[in-house]
Amino acid sequence: MNSVLIYIKMAALIMIGKSSEISDESIQIHSGLGYMKSEEVERYLRGLCEGI
Asked: What global pTM score does this model have?
């Protein structure tokens, strides 16, 4: 049981890192417009930062 929880926590850490990379890259693709509150990318990044 404990080993399963360790794998779940490891997967969660990997997903947080990957989602952070993807959010950062999408903001760069939108060339700064991703920082505007009206954009969906900004909401994803803000949600990611609040979750950490």
From this structure: 0.56
